[in-house]
Automatic annotation (TrEMBL):
Gene3D superfamilies: 3.40.630.30. Keywords: Transferase. SUPFAM superfamilies: Acyl-CoA N-acyltransferases (Nat) (SSF55729). This is GNAT family N-acetyltransferase.
Amino acid sequence: MEKLDDIKLVHLAEKHVAELNKFELPEEQRQFTALPSEVLNVTEGQYPIVILDEGVAVGFFLLHATDRVKDYTTNPNAMLLTALSINLKQQRKGYARKGMLQLPLFVRKEFEHCDEVVLVVNHKNIPAQQLYLKVGFVDTGERRMGPIGEQIVMSLSIA
């Protein structure tokens, strides 16, 4: 079994903001996701989550429990994952995969009502699609049109 205990998912705290504001992404990734600094001003029902490696913020994403979730599933207990990013300096070290492998346990603990996480990924974003499939998401067969083309709806059962 792979060692995941060096990676932790935590709710955003003030102490993470300075690190998150320094995140950089290559242009080819910028078209598919947002920098943490662009989405830190969350609204009710949005939960900013930080991926930590030994206390250092290496990744970030949002979980939504808003009406936006209804665009992708009829499950009233689902949450939507958006804006996953790994800081450019920390990429290619397995942080996205390890963070997403932690997701089911984190969601069961922090959002007891949730039994499904959904997301959309651009059909051109092959690395992200491969990541999500490796960590247990499944392609639902649903498609949506996004700002830069077709989006694949994926789902992860939280059992």
